[in-house]
């Protein structure tokens, strides 16, 4: 029998002994009076008044030294030491604790605030109660989980053993709280739009497809946070809306991209992309200050300060400056030749894809903060065209060589929109599975009239970026492939 099996058998035996003694190893009610953090912050007064406190938490460590024992107990607010003495608890109660409880178990401790001989703030145990017996042990706090796949697969243990990891997700929650508060403070109404769509709108990406059994039709998980729906709300008479929610893209993974992620998108009637840039700069500075405590960052060999003036970078001019290729006038053959010369791998051979690949080659050299503006019309099928007829009123925040957001003066000309959707349909017909699906009902909405509108969106990638971590590390439960489930009970 393996050590793991021995430990499991020992824990099962302890559960049996508790049950035979009339003690429920999994009770539903606790007598907790204080969170651990409350005991520690109020310790001096509680000790002075000799106030009895009851805490509850997981046994992170358990050390026996003859007639005394020490337990490290941790709840969601903090950790404290419980000092167990045979003299204080009585021999039977003390021995039962030592023989029936184990590291990883949840326990309730009742006692008095107490300072140990080493000066540690602790609780002098008077009574204890099992709250939940664990059949498996937990990793040691010193070593944690080293295997990367195992760490993400058993994220609950990873988070349990690392306060730094738990603090990261508290910070991420604040990231979205700050965003939500900012939008509401600026008069935006929070809305909810559909996750399931008959056509995916608002971005160019490969969707997840599923089946709606009741309607007997194929539907798709949304790839944007309600872009075409929120624009319908502009036509419906709402002037400012935003949504924070999930989006799904059936594409490859990278340190900056996952298939399931959270985005925020806002739509602002009677505003254009220049208004949007001003608001977004203010929002990003607010996030940086409130969530990270600074506007200065250093990453990927770039140093930048979000509080600085944001440079405007012209898409076409920047690509030409770095590569010598004018993406408006160059032929597809010239663009391919340049990519081959630069040693850049690419997929797809239509001009839209080639243009995008050339830009991605260039962006890594831009520290920011900056706004990339005036993209070619071909790569922005939902954006309003500028007077030159070939570029659009689009903007993207750039920091440390990456785009961390996307906004437009939204196209509201139904004739132009129909023509662009028809072009996207041709791309789809020619095998481009990342081209945007046309939404003809959206065109019909535009025919009823939509006001001038600025739209903008960014995702949790911004958080991971500012935190200096791959996006996978900043998701509580990133998708992992299942293990062999052959022997798993059904």
Q: How would you describe the overall organization of this protein?
A:
- The chain is an alpha+beta fold and 490 residues long.
- The chain folds into two domains: 3-138, OB fold (Dihydrolipoamide Acetyltransferase, E2P); 160-310 and 368-474, Bira Bifunctional Protein, Domain 2 (BirA Bifunctional Protein, domain 2), CATH 3.30.930.
- 36% of the residues lie in helices and 24% in strands.
- It is built from 16 helices and 19 strands.
- The strands form four sheets. Strands 6, 10, 11, 14, 15, 16, 17, 18 and 19 form a nine-stranded mixed beta sheet that branches.
- α7 (155-161) crosses α8 (163-185), α9 (227-235) packs parallel to α15 (440-448) and α14 (414-429) packs antiparallel against α15.
- The chain is elongated, with a radius of gyration of 29 Å.
- The relative contact order is 0.09.
